[in-house]
């Protein structure tokens, strides 16, 4: 299991934001520090899953000294975020979607800095979490097309 540096930022009128110097563009937020840490682990795992699926290399974790030497990081508070996805094997699947929905998924995923697979995994986890937390009946709570 690898540990990556996450940087937490907090403005007076915002949630706790987290970014990853080793993964530019990967950001998340939480309502409190515990939520931010949980969301950071989830965001990092989803992003790395997408990289692995796309056959891209996963960078080695930067040292704390290297991260904090960058002037852009001086306002962040460093935390260690464990990457727990290395033991999970990505499985290729084949699904059928209406072409317009697929285009919407791809556009949304790209705007969020995600791969199609990363976005679909995040959406599925979100829906399953909502159903498990009393968010509704999964038989009637499908992703709208």
Q: Could you walk me through the main structural features you see in this protein, from its secondary elements to its overall organization?
A:
- This is CopG family transcriptional regulator.
- InterPro entries: Arc_rbn_hlx_hlx, HicB-like, Ribbon_hlx_hlx, TTHA1013/TTHA0281-like.
- One of its GO terms (biological process) is regulation of DNA-templated transcription.
- With 145 residues, the chain is α+β, with helices and mostly antiparallel strands.
- The chain has 2 domains: 88 residues, Double Stranded RNA Binding Domain (2-Layer Sandwich); 53 residues.
- It is built from 4 helices and 4 strands.
- It has a 4-stranded antiparallel sheet with strand order 3-2-1-4.
- A hairpin with a 7-residue loop joins strand 2 and strand 3.
Mean pLDDT: 85
Major sheet details: 4 strands, antiparallel
As a percent range, the share of helical residues equals 25-40%
Mass-distribution shape: globular
Number of strands: 4
The total number of structural domains is 2
Parts with pLDDT < 50 across at least 5 consecutive residues = 137-145
CATH class of the largest domain: Alpha Beta
């Amino acid at each position: 299991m690898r540990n990556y540096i996450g940087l937490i930022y907090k403005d007076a009128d915002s949630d706790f934001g987290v970014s990853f110097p080793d993964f530019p563009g990967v950001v998340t937020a939480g309502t409190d520090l515990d939520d931010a840490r949980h969301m950071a682990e989830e965001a990092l795992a989803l992003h790395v899953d997408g990289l692995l699926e796309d056959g891209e290399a996963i960078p080695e974790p930067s040292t704390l000294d290297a991260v904090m030497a960058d002037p852009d990081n001086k306002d962040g508070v460093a935390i260690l975020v464990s990457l727990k996805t290395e033991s999970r094997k990505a499985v290729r699947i084949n699904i059928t979607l209406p072409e317009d929905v697929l285009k919407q998924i791809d556009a949304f995923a790209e705007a969020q800095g995600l791969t199609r697979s990363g976005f679909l995994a995040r959406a599925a986890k979100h829906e399953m979490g909502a159903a498990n937390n009393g968010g509704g009946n999964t038989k009637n709570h499908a992703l709208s097309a």
